[in-house]
Amino acid sequence: MRDFSTDHRWLSINTATVRQQRGQDWPLLDILDACGQRGIRAVSPWRDQVAAAGLQATANKLQEHGIELSGYCRGGMFTYTDAASRQASRDDNRRALDEACTLHAPCLVLVVGGLPGALAGHAAHRDIAGAREQVNEGIAALLDDARERQMPLAIEPLHPMYAADRACINTLAQALDVCDALDPGRTGALGLAVDLYHVWWDPTLAVQIQRAGPDANGDGSRLLAFHVCDWLTPTTHLLEDRGMMGDGVIDIPHIRALVEAQGFAGYSEVEIFSRGNWWRQDGGQVLDTCIERHRRCV
């Protein structure tokens, strides 16, 4: 396993971690300046932040600081209620692919969606199996566009508490089943974003990470992105109470060892939603803490 204790070469910042500091939005271009000043070499920006800053302005700022992307957040939300909403989802995902290409992202992260309407508080139905069928259909359709653009898709399974509203793919096993069905040749076009907040609890985690690794010939790994944070006890909010690495109960180094044993050699992307703690602090101090915890706790 790589030694992270002496530098932060393999740290990436998901920009949601510092998107709203002390009650104010921290503009993406300012976040990138702060990362550049600290020698942070990679980020994963969110589409709404890029839209606010401007796509080309974001690309220029990344180039100015020599900052790479560890992923692009996000595509997905494939479930629908009618032909119009299905087409709207497909059009939006194609736009996400084009943005990811402009920013030279290594992958487009997919949060696949739950029961249609549930995120707004009014689920259209209770058919989660049907929702999963729509997800498979949506990924299959997007995969053709992704291959054309040479932009890999990374399915991010979310914790089961999000099954109704945000993602009805909730385990690595489910995500890998989709990968095996839609990309059986392991072409590199479809894989996983492994977010520890969502999968740390899974009793089959080690088995599924091994399954996601390269085949017997050393080819076809599905491990495209690796997200880190911590699970606090107690957790006071299902979405916005993630912990800084080292403050909770996840054995982060153990899981990093599992993915690196399968050949993953990319960035550890810090993604923390924390309205009650880290979003209340100075953004620069949060970045400094991410650097320190990445060296000590990842």
Task: Provide an overview of this structure.
The chain is α/β, with parallel strands linked by helices and 298 residues long. It has two domains: 1-68 and 229-298, Divalent-metal-dependent TIM barrel enzymes (TIM Barrel), CATH 3.20.20; 71-193, Divalent-metal-dependent TIM barrel enzymes (TIM Barrel), CATH 3.20.20. It is 40% helix and 13% strand. The chain is built from ten helices and eleven strands. Strand 10 (223-228), helix 9 and strand 11 form a beta-alpha-beta unit. The radius of gyration is 18 Å and the shape is globular.
Largest sheet: 9 strands, parallel
CATH architecture verdict of the largest domain: Alpha-Beta Barrel
- The CATH topology name of the largest domain reads TIM Barrel
H/E order of the elements? EEEHEHHEEHEHEHEHHEHEH
Number of helices: 10
CA-atom Rg in angstroms: 18 Å
Order of strands, widest sheet: 5-4-1-11-10-9-8-7-6
User: End-to-end distance, in Å?
Assistant: 11 Å
Summarize the structure.
With 298 residues, this protein is an alpha/beta fold. The protein is built from ten helices and eleven strands. The protein is 40% helix and 13% strand.
